[in-house]
Amino acid sequence: MKLINSKDINSQRFEKAAFGYKQEEVDEFLSEISSDYEKLVKENEELNKKLQVLADKVREYREDEEAVKDALLLAQKEGRRIVRESKLKADELISDAEIKAKNVVETAAEDAKIQIAELKAQVEAEKEVLAYTQKEVSDFKESLFDIYKLHLEMISEMPDYNEDDEADEDDSDSDEQYNTEELEEEENSGSDSGKEKVK
Question: Looking at the whole model, is its pTM more than 0.85?
Answer without folding.
Answer: no
